[in-house]
Write a structure and sequence with these properties.
This protein is about 45% helix and about 15% strand. It has an eight-stranded parallel β-barrel, surrounded by eight helices. α2 packs across α11 and α10 crosses α11. β7, α9 and β8 form a beta-alpha-beta unit. By secondary structure, it is of the alpha/beta class. It has one domain: TIM Barrel (Alpha-Beta Barrel). The structure holds pyridoxine-5'-phosphate. Pyridoxine-5'-phosphate binds next to β8 and α10.
Length: about 240
């Protein structure tokens, strides 16, 4: 199982003082040196953390696989077509949310998504749809011929009681199986940390976990390279 590291929160810290450091690009290089299999960043419409120039510089890192998270808007599609990341993960976006709150409603937005997915894939960019673990969302993702889904693990990460956690795990497992069955590849992420990662890492069929906040928080104390190394170890 691979590990994608989301470096948005390095930029969050930089933007807190409108400075030019800490640099998310340097963090990405350290993350790769620590064993990350790819770099993930979310270019939000309000540019609250990652900026356009960050994505351009991240794209220029040699041999670094870049996954650009973005909303399904014409502005973002135009930007992605210019930058050509390896992957685009389409996420829902609300201005006031602290972080991405839920999965994309693929069923409701099928018409808009169909065109966007086609355009990106025609230009050699693999598309992943960030969805809640729901059957109808998986089925529609397959109809829209996305290459990947990323299962939103927030409900699992937030589950307090053991039975709730187990129910979420079972849901994620079943959705993974269904997605593979209909020809999708499967990633997962959101809210994963050093304590809750093991059970998710046991689910067969998930290719990659995308993790940001917990690794960046750990990196404050041990450095990015070590924080990534520890997460890789946990996954293994
Ligand atoms: N995957 C997606 C699609 C996300 O939007 C985020 C949050 O930016 C993550 C993974 C990482 O979540 P976290 O920062 O909670 O690890």
């Amino acid at each position: 199982m691979k590990l994608g590291i989301n470096i948005d929160h390095i930029a969050t810290l930089r933007q807190a003082r409108l400075e030019n450091f800490p640099d998310p690009v340097l963090a990405a290089i350290e993350a790769l040196e620590g064993g990350a299999d790819g770099i993930v960043c979310h270019l939000r419409e309000d540019r609250r953390h990652i900026h356009d120039y960050d994505v351009k510089k991240l794209r220029a890192i040699k041999n670094a696989r870049l996954d650009l998270e973005m909303a399904a808007t014409p502005e973002m599609v135009k930007f992605a077509l210019k930058i050509k990341p390896d992957y685009v993960t389409i996420v829902p976006e609300k201005r006031k949310e602290i972080t991405t709150e839920g999965g994309l409603d693929v069923v409701k937005n099928r018409k808009k998504l169909k065109d966007i997915i086609q355009k990106l894939q025609d230009n050699g960019i693999s598309v992943s749809l960030f969805i809640d673990p729901e059957l109808k969302q998986v089925e529609e993702s397959a109809v829209l011929t996305a290459h990947f889904i990323e299962i939103h693990t927030g409900a699992y990460a937030n589950a307090k009681a053991e039975n709730q956690k187990l129910a979420q795990l079972s849901k994620i497992q079943k959705i993974t199986e269904k997605a593979l069955w209909v020809g999708l590849r499967v990633n997962a992420g959101h809210g994963l940390d050093y304590n809750n990662i093991s059970d998710i890492a046991r689910i067969e069929g998930i290719e990659e976990l995308n993790i940001g906040f917990s690794v960046v928080a750990r990196a404050l104390f041990v450095g990015m390279k070590q924080a990534v190394k520890e997460m890789k170890e946990k996954i293994r």
